[in-house]
Structures are given as structure tokens and as C-alpha cells.
Amino acid sequence: MTRRIACLGGDGIGPEVLAQAIRVLDALPVDVELVELPFGGAAIDESGEPLPDETLRACRQADAVLLGAVGGPRWDGGAVRPEEGLIGLRKALDVYANLRPARQGAVDLLIVRELVGGLYYGRRGVLDDGTVFDTCEYHPAQIERVVRRAFELARGRSGTLVSVDKANVLDTSRLWRAVVESLAPEYPGVRVRHALVDSFAMELVTGAEEIDVVVTENTFGDILSDVAAAVTGGLGLAASASLGDDGPGIFEPVHGSAPDLAGRGLANPAAMLRSLALLLDHALERRDLATSLGAAVDAALESHPTADAGGGATTAAFGDAVLMMLDDQLTRQEDAWKTPA
């Protein structure tokens, strides 16, 4: 069965790193149809909207969304910002669970961030006296579904889960902690503990190798996942998958659009390719190919590092290295399958 993937290049280096992911997809033994669509600032330039109706419609009809990057200074101060398209797409597809793996050396952790609630989507405004407010709001059902997802992921890994909040100050965090406590008995094989976001940030920096699965709300998750990325090599290597219960997930690198690098062939596509590996695993159910791609990216980071990783490989040269190593892996696997037991 042909699977449809909506490809949103977006802005800055987004189209360049997406191009490398498309090269890899074309080389893999998967039956996919790729649909490239305007998004972000590029879509604002074209139609005045960061998430045009045709793009949203195509994303809803797809099996997965592969996204490059959005934003840039050229759209600062405009009536509409490119990032509004990303926030709107997440809400429209209800991809409430954002998976942010961070892996390097002894560190192998996964942050599960609630993605469609909290400050990013709460009521906001300006009062008559000039006061500006943003409201953090959560319904128990919003918390329950992402916490269940985290418990299930933890059960399939080491059986440990850290729930991060700010329950000593915030009512939303007290609700969060209560929901976690109510669900814990349903997962007797998972050891769960609570941590306050400020002290847990220090844990990430000083002892990330002791952490496995983390679950937290939207704003805390945004910040902590960037800290975890810094601990394990930087945002240029960080991938993400945003998943719901039905419909397509969004798979995107965590780095920004880096407009200063755009068009120069200097962008590191590792995070984009790692996001593609998550797509292969979660959307196409090809964990074997996801594992092979992940290994090829790791090898290319050693043999063909881009400038941000201390090397001199161009974006395309890095993609070439991944394709070469991936082809070698797939050939060896095919030979192994052909060899009688």
C-alpha cells in the first residue's frame, strides 16, 4: 500500500535539509508518495497565510508530515508570524505527544512533552492598563492521555518514568501530579517519581545518563528538551516526533531555520534524517529501516561531519555519506536474508 507523506520545507535551511530526507526516502524500499507543500514564511509570501488551507487539507489526508523549519527575521513584526502555522498545524492534527529523544554515549533518554495545551494555547491578551497576560490551562483529560503515552513508552524501555512539574507553585502542576498519581497503579511495572522543573534541569545537566523517560507539560518540555539536546551534542542533532491517537504525526528537526546558513550548503541534515528515522518507525512501522538509517547517520557524523560538528562536509556531502552507508547496510541485510540458515 502506498503511504502519502506531506513534505513541508518551510523557511531558511528547512528546504535544504528536507531535500536530503527526500533523497534517502527515494533510496529506501518503501512505497511512498511525496507531496511538497508551502508552509511558514514561504507560504506567507505566497498567500499571506503560514498554513494555507490546501496545505492543511493535504496534511490531514497524509500518513505522515515531514517538516523542515519555519521562521526568520524577515517576517518579524508582521501581522502574521510563520510560527503560527506550526502551532496551528499541531493543534489541527491534535498531535499531543511530542517525543524528543536525546542520545549520546551513556545518555539515552526520551522526553515526552505535552504539545497542544498550556501557555501556548491558553487565553492571552492585553488589559486597558497595558498589562499583558498568557494563561496556562490544562484539562485533566489532556494530561491523562499524554501521561498514559509516557507510561507505555517507559514500560517498553527501562520501566522508569520522571514526571516533571512545578507543584510547589502552580495549580496546573498540582493537577498534573494528581493525574500521574491516579494512573500509576495501572502501570505496576513502571517506577514513577516526581521532580520540580528547576531542580530537574540541574539533573539533566549533571546526571543525564541516569534518566530514561520524562513526561512534562508544554512549556517545561520545550525548555528541558533543548537542555537535553545540548547535553547530547546540540540542537543540530536533535529530532522529534509529534504523535496523536489518530491521523498523521509530524516529524521535524528541533533546530531553527538558521537563515544565515540558508543557501550556503552548510546546514547539518542529521536532525532531519533522525526525524525521518522516527517517521519510518512510528508512521510506516519499519523499525528495521529506522534502525539502519539511525546507524548510517551516526556513522556519517563520524566520517563526514559538517561545520557545526567540527568538520567541512557540505549538506549534500553528508547526505551522500548517509546514502552510501545505508546502501551498504541494506545490501548486507539482503545478503543475510538470502543465505540459508
List keywords for this structure.
single chain, alpha/beta, 12 strands, globular, Isopropylmalate Dehydrogenase
Characterization of this structure:
With 341 residues, the protein is α/β, with parallel strands linked by helices. 44% of the residues lie in helices and 20% in strands. The chain folds into two domains: 1-100 and 237-341, Isopropylmalate Dehydrogenase; 106-231, Isopropylmalate Dehydrogenase (3-Layer(aba) Sandwich), CATH 3.40.718.10. The protein has helices spanning 14-27, 40-47, 53-61, 82-93, 140-155, 171-183, 197-207, 218-231, 270-282, 287-303, 315-338; strands at 3-10, 32-37, 64-69, 97-104, 107-114, 124-126, 132-134, 160-165, 191-196, 213-216, 239-243, 249-253. Helix 2 (40-47) crosses helix 4 (82-93), helix 5 crosses helix 6 (171-183) and helix 10 (287-303) packs across helix 11 (315-338). The model has no long low-confidence stretch (mean pLDDT 95).
Structural class by SSE content: alpha/beta
**Helical proportion, percent range:** 40-55%
| Alpha carbon gyration radius | 20 Å
CATH superfamily annotation of the largest domain: Isopropylmalate Dehydrogenase
Q: Globular, elongated, flat, extended or rod-shaped: what is the shape?
A: globular
Number of helices: 11
CATH class of the largest domain: Alpha Beta
| N-C termini distance | 30 Å
Mean pLDDT: 95
Q: Briefly note the CATH topology name of the largest domain.
A: Isopropylmalate Dehydrogenase
Outline of the structure:
With 341 residues, the protein is α/β, with parallel strands linked by helices.
